[in-house]
Known about the structure:
- The protein has helices spanning 3-9, 21-32, 35-48, 70-76, 94-102, 117-126, 152-165, 185-194, 220-225, 230-254, 290-293, 321-330; strands at 61-66, 85-88, 107-114, 133-138, 170-178, 259-263, 268-272, 279-282, 294-300.
- The strands form 2 sheets. Strands 2-9-6-1-5-3-4 form a 7-stranded mixed beta sheet, sandwiched between helices.
- It is an alpha/beta fold.
- The protein is globular, with a radius of gyration of 21 Å.
- It starts with a helix and ends with a helix.
- The protein has 12 helices and 9 strands.
- 38% of the residues lie in helices and 16% in strands.
- Helix 6 (117-126) links the parallel strand 3 and strand 4.
Amino acid sequence: MDLLGRVRSMNSNGCILSSDKNILSSSLRRLEHGPIRHSYNFYWNIRHGSGTSILDKEWDNLLLLDACRYDEFRRISPFQPSIIDKRITLGSKTPEFLQRTFRNIRLHDVVYVTANPQVLKFLAKNEEGAPIFYDTISLLDEWEAETQTIPPETVRKAALEAAETYPDKRLLIHFLQPHAPFLGRTANAIKRRTGKTIGGLDPGRDYTEVKPRDIETASYRDMLREGVTREEIRCAYRETLQLVINECLPLIDTLPGKTAITSDHGELLGDPIYPFGRERWEHPSGYRTTELCVVPWLKFGGENRKQVISEAPKQSSPADREKIEKRLRSLGYK
């Protein structure tokens, strides 16, 4: 039990008065988000490492899954366990991954195919003077209102088109899954039972066209209050992960050169964070834990590498910032 739990469990004979519990609770939470967390992160990095950038790895095509845990990937992966390596991420959330990987970098031999609006938000803030990538292919217009996401098959198709269009460029292909909203049988069953989407919004309404104050998100904790179990949430996560892995398989077989699979960060699925104890969900920023910061790394092929050239980037049309913000809200970001 964590410190806050011990305080809550004290009876009237304990040394802490009931009137002081709120004050102590607030103080403990400030400690968690301050010196205690920083100390824990420091020792975690000593033990596991501070992270390896994807730019320090060799690849011609990088399939980037979003919020993919190493242990869950290994659990359901069709690949031999011997080829599934670990990579320590640079952050526990996509904006951290982007800032620590691409800030002040120019990669004019890379085409970024992305379903994640966080990428476009980052680029809009950091591309003053010159684009970071040779070209960025946004899939925001492929957004599905019913599922509140961009399905993995859409990303696969866009990746194959990019490979034909840019045979002399490396491809960075950013799927949204297994990040919520989840897809698959369990997610659909939960939606029918509760009328809500795990990690997303109520189904059947295009929330991307409404104001932030009118959006009612359905977080993991909301779903637990609806009677959804922790194991059901994990099952929905795994089924979503299986769907995106299935879309990666044809890319591994088809894309020329060396192809790798990894993730920007992991996901908390009701896991306790030592030494705080309480179960946690999603991917809060600023935490270094195995569930959040250990992701898979697999590589395929490489006998015949791409002949890649770097050249002056294409001038992409300006990002639609309003659309980016709406899509982020549909993913649960406010």
